[in-house]
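User: My collaborator and I are trying to settle a disagreement about how two of our proteins should look. Neither of us wants to argue from intuition anymore, so we agreed to look at predicted structures for both before our next call. Could you fold the first one, then the second, and keep them clearly separated?

Assistant: That sounds like a sensible way to settle it. I'll keep them separate. The first protein:
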Amino acid sequence: MASSLQTYVNQTIIVMTSDGRLFSGILQGYDQQTNLILNDTKERVITPDMPTEILELGLYLIRGDSVVLCGLVDIAMDSDIDWDKVRGQKLHTTKRPVR
């Protein structure tokens, strides 16, 4: 996956992690373990009964072993979304419990 990220550098991406968190930011760099460096990072916390909370995180490192998906953001489409009205179930972890 890391080699295909080169086209995403300096572009706004969205990343979902294995613990169900959703981040967006400008990809500044990555390595062979898919560790991601994002700038202007925002975390969107979507819940069923509250407006979406957007946390401004700034420069942020996401460990590659926690990345579930990564994709480009359509800036125009994203800016048209009224995030205060977005509701949804909390994303569950993608990891199985250790036994």
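The second protein, kept apart from the first:
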Amino acid sequence: MKQNIVKTRLKNNQPVLGVLANSTDPTVAELCGFSGLDFYMIDGEHSPVTTVQVQEIVRACEVSGITPLARVRSNDPKLILQYLDAGVMGIMMPGVSTVSEAEALVRAVKYPPYGTRGFGFVRACDYLQGTMSQGEYVTFANEQTLVLPQIESKEAVENLDDLLAVEGIDGFVIGPRDLAMSMGYYDGPGHDEVKRTIAGVVEKIKQAGLVVGTVATSGDQAKALIDRGVLFCLNTFSGLLKSAASDFMKGRG
């Protein structure tokens, strides 16, 4: 297993910027890596990506020096295992609202004694052909993997104090659009009540000493979020492409 540079930066209170992408093409991940982004989040929720394709995308990330992460579609330990065994170095789990769901996520991501992840002769451990023994690898993997539940519902906000106390979680990523929907605002998160709720969530996560993450649609927005203590900023690949294309098309006058 490679060192998780993103987790190292976050531990050092340094911001990381990356993309959430629903492409099944490894070339997209490779391009994002060569562009200098910190992480590539495979979207296994809103995409047709298969676990076979995950492995090829992870290889492209490794070639181009970008940390491979993934949003997995469900809190299924066997599915999470397949992503991790392919070499994904952190899991962002959508729809986590209760302590039991958060604890289940930690158990799925971590090997014993912190979790129940099963061990196999897979590429994540160099098929046990590398320099680490099994014991060394298990310890290293538990240190390197990121666990990032998403806060996307009113229930999650109501349970936030208890969620913050779950051992093994590195931080929380706020999903503003789904949170707004859960609050009854179906047209987006631009409402004052949603903004106040998100601000409160950000402060609570920071006070707990955990990583705060959310969406940033531009460099200026990412800078503003980082100034507020949000260290994990993600755009979508399609969003980046749209903004770059719009800027390029200004040349037409």
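Some points you might bring to the call about the second protein. The mean pLDDT is 97. Residues 5-252 form a domain with the TIM Barrel fold (CATH 3.20.20.60).
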